[in-house]
């Protein structure tokens, strides 16, 4: 490890920090390798109930490390898809705490997270077309967040847009004054750790999968799942705790 990504665990929250400010936290081979390892460790750690992804410096992530591109094997393509999939498929909620601006590939990380919170001063752009390349890999999570009109507007033009606009088009969950960023992220994580781990993992899947179901199919499948959850060990513990007016066993 070269120390480009760090992880801390406190109160059920694993905070993973990109720490390569000298190149604006660009997605180098080394950084991607460390990020993958830290994500896997957080996912395997029972005490980590929620994951926060953030960075140091004034830029969250500038995208691919262009100094490494053009070499055989296009380095960024090797592990970046797996990392976005780890975040997207994570059974644990993932909150992106943007410390600042994000560009290109960095927006793939943002879109893959369940929540994304940024300071109002941050700006964003899909700059790939202006370099003669395409936002190919990141399109997979990004196009699941943006409307078709917004995607065409920003992926085709490469125009810079602000945090308020990023909220409007679905790229961000919230944009807040810089001095409210940490408190806003903490509000989300404090709410998330109150959820049952299994219930959170299942509900993450519902958010993604139910809209694609037919109305009839969805109702039948969800009725079956609902009955299953009420009788599950976690569901029974949650109901018992509610009746007894005590915290459930999974509470941090």
Throw out a few tags for this protein.
six-stranded mixed beta sheet, four-stranded mixed beta sheet, 10 helices
Structure description:
The protein is of the alpha/beta class and 252 residues long. Helix content is 45%, strand content 16%. It contains ten helices and ten strands. It has helices at residues 29-44, 76-89, 106-112, 136-142, 148-157, 163-168, 181-192, 197-209, 215-231, 233-244; strands spanning 5-10, 13-18, 50-55, 59-61, 94-97, 101-103, 115-119, 123-125, 161-162, 174-176. The strands form two sheets. Strands 1-2-3-5-7-10 form a six-stranded mixed β-sheet, sandwiched between helices. A four-stranded mixed β-sheet has the order 4-6-8-9. β2, α1 and β3 form a beta-alpha-beta unit. The longest helix is centred in the last third of the chain and has 17 residues, at 215-231. 35% of the residues are buried.
């Amino acid at each position: 490890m070269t120390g480009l990504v760090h992880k801390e665990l406190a109160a059920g929250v694993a905070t993973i920090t990109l720490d390569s400010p000298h190149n604006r936290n660009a997605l180098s081979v080394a950084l991607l390798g460390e990020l993958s390892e830290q994500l896997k460790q957080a996912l395997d750690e029972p005490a980590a109930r929620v994951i926060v992804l953030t960075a140091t410096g004034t830029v969250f992530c500038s995208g691919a490390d262009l100094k490494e591109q053009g070499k055989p094997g296009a380095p960024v393509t090797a592990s970046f898809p797996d990392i976005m999939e780890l975040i997207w498929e994570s059974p644990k909620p993932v909150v992106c705490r943007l410390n600042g601006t994000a560009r290109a590939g960095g927006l793939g990380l943002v879109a893959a997270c369940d929540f994304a919170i940024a300071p109002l001063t941050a700006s964003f752009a899909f700059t790939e077309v202006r370099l003669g390349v395409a936002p190919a890999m990141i399109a997979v999570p990004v196009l699941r967040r943006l409307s078709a009109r917004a995607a065409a507007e920003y992926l085709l033009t490469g125009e810079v847009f602000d945090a308020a606009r990023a909220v409007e088009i679905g790229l961000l969950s919230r944009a807040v004054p810089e001095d409210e960023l940490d408190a806003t992220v903490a509000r989300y994580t404090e709410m998330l750790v109150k959820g049952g781990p299994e219930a959170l993992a299942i509900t993450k899947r519902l958010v993604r999968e139910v809209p694609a179901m037919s109305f009839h199919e969805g109702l039948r499948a969800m009725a079956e799942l609902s009955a299953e959850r009420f009788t599950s060990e976690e569901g029974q513990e949650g109901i018992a705790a509610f009746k007894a007016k005590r915290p459930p066993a999974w509470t941090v």
